[in-house]
């Protein structure tokens, strides 16, 4: 068992900002219990996610990368000349550089990240690969309203790049609201290049979120270690099980942490009770059909201009215009 760390000395580098901390406490003491999926990405969680992307069962990352590689020139043509590329929740830089290197005279690249450490890492990754590019990082929570950096607010063509099917972590109403906000921020010539995981054989989805090596289980259980560290809690991760299940009617994979017994955990100085088998809902990952996604985006003010997929139609990339 891990000894709880004092709350007066949080792990500074990737400590959660106040709004996320509050969401964690609210969710744990709510009924049913839940945690924000954004809380998965502390330093260890982000490293585990990188490992998930390499797993044989986790097809989305490599499938999307192959789609980008095969069609980058067409995508760059859709994006057009002199665009500002805005990436909410920037990743490891590989997909971004692939796209930026094919774009026609990009005016600037604006990575957006809530964590200063992650933002810095992605600036460095892109700067190394695209040395002549103007990079204008923005430290912000992209799920809330934000303004483009000074001097870019009036840019003619603003294109949002949102790969990885991160949009799937939002329920359809939230996703629509998010896309509607970006549509307004981007102005009359806005564009959106977005990666969307597609509905498919439940067995394929099930395996992608419950891999044989247990990396996804470790990723999910890491939430409890983070709560221990940041809230002086005493979760025993061994007494919780990773559960992933595909709800075909809702078109979403759910991740849960399931208590293996009746138990009481201390969190932030309060008692948190679990019944045997009770779960904490930790993530939704929505899957769309290409038409279903385009219809949702249309409600948010976007018109589909192009779509790409792999031969097995596992993953989709769409370009949408204002
Ligand atoms: C990064 C949100 C796209 O939902 O597939 C991977 C996160 N969760 N395995 C996804 C995740 C479990 C991933 N996204």
Question: How would you describe this protein?
Answer:
The N terminus is likely disordered. It contains 9 helices and 12 strands. With 322 residues, it is α/β, with parallel strands linked by helices. β2, α5 and β3 form a beta-alpha-beta unit. The strands form 3 sheets. The protein has a 7-stranded mixed beta sheet with strand order 3-2-1-4-5-12-11, with helices on both faces. It has a 3-stranded antiparallel beta sheet with strand order 6-7-10. N,N,N-trimethyl-histidine binds next to β10.
Measured by DSSP, the beta-strand proportion falls in 15-25%
Task: Please estimate the helix content.
Answer: 25-40%
Order of helices and strands: HHHEHEHEEHEHHEEEEEHEE
Total helices: the number is 9
Radius of gyration: 20 Å
Helix and strand arrangement:
Elements: H1 18-28, H2 43-52, H3 60-79, E1 84-88, H4 94-100, E2 108-113, H5 116-129, E3 138-139, E4 158-162, H6 172-186, E5 191-197, H7 202-208, H8 215-231, E6 240-247, E7 252-259, E8 263-267, E9 270-274, E10 279-286, H9 290-299, E11 303-309, E12 315-321
N,N,N-trimethyl-histidine binds near residues 60, 209 and 283.
Task: Please outline what is shown here.
Residues 21-321 form the Histidine-specific methyltransferase SAM-dependent domain. This protein is α/β, with parallel strands linked by helices and 322 residues long.
